[in-house]
Design goal:
Blueprint (H helix, E strand, L loop, with lengths): L1 E11 L4 E15 L5 H11 L12 E10 L4 E9 L7 E3 L4 H10 L1
Antiparallel strand pairs: 1-2, 1-3, 1-5, 3-4
């Protein structure tokens, strides 16, 4: 669907990024449309270590939040937010994981 942003803060946990909800801060990324959520969500839930039966112990939690696309349109989207203490992570002030990923690859 395009590039967009969601109100959140982004953290680098080494092997993966994690976003937490935070007003007036943004995490940037790409938004995709899935034609069959019944098939896609279980795969994404497993990848993100989200268990709807035990959300408190899940690594990430799934929520629906508005994403602001580059064209100015707001659309609801499924977002996986980090579900634990962020103190072991490093804040990514730019809100863009790609920059962190590219920097780590160059090392």
């Amino acid at each position: 669907m395009g590039n967009g942003k969601v109100e959140a803060k982004l953290y680098d946990f080494g092997e993966y990024p994690g976003a937490i909800e935070q007003k007036r801060n943004y995490v940037y990324g790409e938004l995709y449309e899935a034609s069959n959520l019944a098939k896609v969500l279980p795969v994404l839930d497993k990848y993100e270590e989200y268990d709807h039966s035990h959300p408190k112990s899940s690594l990430f939690v799934r929520k629906v939040r508005n994403v602001l696309l580059e064209n100015g349109k707001k659309v609801p989207a499924i977002i996986y937010f980090y579900n634990h203490d962020v103190t072991k992570g490093h804040l990514v002030g730019s809100g863009k994981w790609e920059r962190v990923l590219n920097r780590n690859l160059q090392r």
